[in-house]
Amino acid sequence: MNQISDEGYITADGRKIGAVMMEMKNITLRFGGVKAITDISFDIRQGEIRAIIGPNGAGKSSMLNVISGFYIPQEGEVWFHGKKRAPMRPFQVAQQGIARTFQNIALFEGMSVLDNVMTGRLTHMKSGMLSQAIWKGKAEREEVANREVVEKVIDFLEIQAIRKTPVARLPYGLKKRVELARALAAEPKLLLLDEPMAGMNVEEKEDMSRFILDVNDEFGTTIALIEHDMGVVMDLSDRVVVMDYGKKIGDGTPDEVRNNQNVIDAYLGVAHD
Ligand SMILES: Nc1ncnc2c1ncn2[C@@H]1O[C@H](COP(=O)(O)OP(=O)(O)OP(=O)(O)O)[C@@H](O)[C@H]1O
């Protein structure tokens, strides 16, 4: 990686990373007496794959929840595309182009893969029930356009064969892929992945890693992910934020983080899942 300038940097593998897309400034989040996040600042750049790592309870999911609007921090500011973000609800954050997957799969188990992925288009649907009744043509055109995006995502993630299958019948690894498909159907600018490889076998992890890299490469999607598998994190990410007990203890390229003594002491040097 070359030096980071305002415009961005070139990664070791030659990808062009752009300007800052999202900036977290001095974020503090409390749950009653528990401080989940203490005064953390970091940024995510256009086109980057950014990881957040740290031991259990470090505050990683809380941070992802702040980015996606599920939690409003008591202190600090969230900046997106150069503007300070007012406190907003998750659906408003989604409308700004931020989509996410969850640590525990959150799909509609009884619905087919196709219908689950279609729900990813909800933030793009402009026609309400009333206008659908009055302007049937417009609603139909919208439906066709939404279907096109969804079919493209289904092809891209190679899940055509299971498009009609109810999610409940799928093995775990495929469910995770369907969750990724639903998030991608929203055509996000920033994709948040909460432990995308958790519970997967080696082969499933390899598939998921490839899809994450392909999404970033093909659609230019910026990705922020939480992951415990260090091999995966170090392979996939351009830069890594390390959290411990709600504080930031490291931030840099995988190599910088790997050689950071605080990080080794708190996390990398000890056994973790
Ligand atoms: N909704 C909540 N109410 C109260 N405390 C919470 C809540 N969510 C998180 N916490 C606390 O905040 C701290 C950070 O939790 P968080 O889930 O963000 O950590 P994490 O790094 O994602 O952990 P893990 O790797 O185990 O998922 C923990 O002490 C946790 O108990």
Automatic annotation (TrEMBL):
It holds the Pfam family ABC_tran. CDD domains: ABC_Mj1267_LivG_branched. Gene3D superfamilies: P-loop containing nucleotide triphosphate hydrolases. Transmembrane segments: none annotated. Keywords: ATP-binding, Nucleotide-binding, Transport. InterPro entries: AAA+_ATPase, ABC_AA/LPS_Transport, ABC_transporter-like_ATP-bd, BCA_ABC_TP_C, P-loop_NTPase. The keyword Phosphoprotein does not apply. GO terms for molecular function: ATP binding; ATP hydrolysis activity. The keyword Nucleotide-binding applies. GO terms for cellular component: plasma membrane. Residues 22-270 form the ABC transporter domain. This is Amino acid/amide ABC transporter ATP-binding protein 1, HAAT family.
